[in-house]
């Protein structure tokens, strides 16, 4: 492997938890310091960004927009809000029309409040909600604000079993539960709803088309051709400031630099966070830009 610091665009298979994926990648790379950039439910597949080595410190600076392709099953309500749960209720969907569904979908776009599923990784008093739910001790969680930029109906399939499957594409911010959208859409249409399939096609700037399966990663490791995605490649949404070597050393020591006094170009307006590199183009870390001052935030190289 070329270097042990950077990111991997993992194609998560269904059936594994995000933690399972971290553990498996640790075994493949023989490295302990690995983290992921956003939980995917075990039944889900698709993009799971992985940070290797010191790049784990940069996960919170990756872009937050996510894109999902999902199948929502109307006419079925389950304990987990997906098809892995036990059936709570069924209802006929034969009278539903695409016009009704599209109208209902409108209320799930924009800056909205969403109640997380009872089976989720959110912690309450140090315990995961899914642990409490499995113990028969479900906890009521307050709604949270989430951002859903776009929610499009792609396809419609009515089953002879009485339910209706909707293929949808969702563009959203972090913290959005697709299972909650399925549940709440079913409630709005008075049919019940649950999540039947989920694939994440974009996360943290990484695309499904460029993701690698575990088998592909293992093959590249064996051939010594695996190359990690560098921080500058993953952080293209952040402006870059290049420091001369002497100033770069001072910044790496934790010193605040005053840009006007040093005759350095200021970042674009409204750029609170910037990436910093030296004259040779080496990534040094992340800096806070405030009042024309460059304040070290995450120092990677020094």
TrEMBL record:
Protein name per Swiss-Prot or TrEMBL: tRNA pseudouridine synthase B
Gene source species: Petrachloros mirabilis ULC683
Cited HAMAP family: TruB_bact
InterPro entries with a match to the protein in the record: PsdUridine_synth_cat_dom_sf, PsdUridine_synth_N, tRNA_psdUridine_synth_TruB, tRNA_sdUridine_synth_fam1_C
Gene3D superfamilies linked: Pseudouridine synthase
Active site: 41
GO molecular function, one term: RNA binding
Role, per record: Responsible for synthesis of pseudouridine from uracil-55 in the psi GC loop of transfer RNAs.
An individual GO BP term: mRNA pseudouridine synthesis
CDD domains registered for this protein in UniProt: PseudoU_synth_EcTruB
Keyword RNA-binding annotated: no
Domain tRNA pseudouridine synthase II TruB subfamily 1 C-terminal, residue spans: 239-300
Domain of life: Bacteria
Keywords: Isomerase, tRNA processing
EC annotation from Swiss-Prot or TrEMBL: 5.4.99.25
Family label: Belongs to the pseudouridine synthase TruB family. Type 1 subfamily.
Catalytic activity of the protein: uridine(55) in tRNA = pseudouridine(55) in tRNA
Signal sequence range: none
Domain Pseudouridine synthase II N-terminal: 26-178
